[in-house]
């Protein structure tokens, strides 16, 4: 059942984003920022954690999950370091994921030799 919940929740998030792209004049960058900010706000309100437990990877993989990770990092850093944690927390919480994406993307580009479109 965990796989089914992850599949339909992740699909629902993707469908909502696709509707936003098709029916509004919002650019993809703005929609991505909206998703990250929504994840952070839902995490701050305490709504995202129960949602994450229900949906699993369907909620943690999209950009909503990235916003929630940023919020958790900022919250922990504020508890440890005070005001300066606002600036440090997001970097420390998301560093592993961003570093992994960069390194794996670079390795994939070495293996598959991408070319620019003309």
For the terminal residues, how far apart are their CA atoms? 46 Å
Structural class: mainly alpha
Number of helices: 6
Strand tally? 0
Round the mean pLDDT to the nearest integer and report it.
88
Number of domains: 1
H/E topology pattern: HHHHHH
> Which radius of gyration do the C-alpha atoms yield?
17 Å
Q: Could you list the spans in which at least 5 consecutive residues all have pLDDT below 50? A: none
Percent helix among the residues? over 70%
Strand residue percentage: under 5%
What would you call the quaternary organization? single chain
The description of the largest β-sheet is: none
The geometry reads as: globular
Transmembrane segments: 6-24, 31-48, 83-108
Keywords: Membrane, Transmembrane, Transmembrane helix
Protein name: Stage V sporulation protein AE
Pfam families: SpoVAC_SpoVAEB (PF03862)
Nutshell version of this structure?
This protein is 83% helix and 0% strand.
Fold and architecture overview:
The chain is globular. The chain contains six helices and no strands. The termini are far apart. The protein has 118 residues and is mainly alpha-helical. 83% of the residues lie in helices and 0% in strands. Helix 2 crosses helix 5. Keywords: Membrane, Transmembrane, Transmembrane helix. InterPro entries: Spore_V_AE (IPR014204), SpoVA (IPR005562). It comes from Lachnotalea glycerini. This is Stage V sporulation protein AE.
């Amino acid at each position: 059942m965990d796989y089914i919940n992850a599949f339909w929740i992740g699909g629902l998030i993707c469908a909502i984003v696709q509707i936003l792209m098709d029916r509004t004049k919002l650019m993809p960058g703005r929609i991505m920022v909206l998703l990250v900010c929504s994840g952070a706000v839902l995490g701050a309100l305490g709504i995202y954690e129960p949602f994450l437990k229900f949906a699993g990877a369907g909620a943690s993989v999209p950009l909503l999950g990235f916003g929630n990770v940023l919020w958790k990092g900022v919250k922990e850093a504020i508890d440890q370091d005070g005001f300066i944690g606002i600036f440090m927390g997001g970097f420390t919480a998301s560093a592993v994921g961003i570093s992994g994406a960069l390194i794996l993307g670079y390795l994939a580009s070495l293996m598959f030799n991408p070319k620019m479109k003309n």
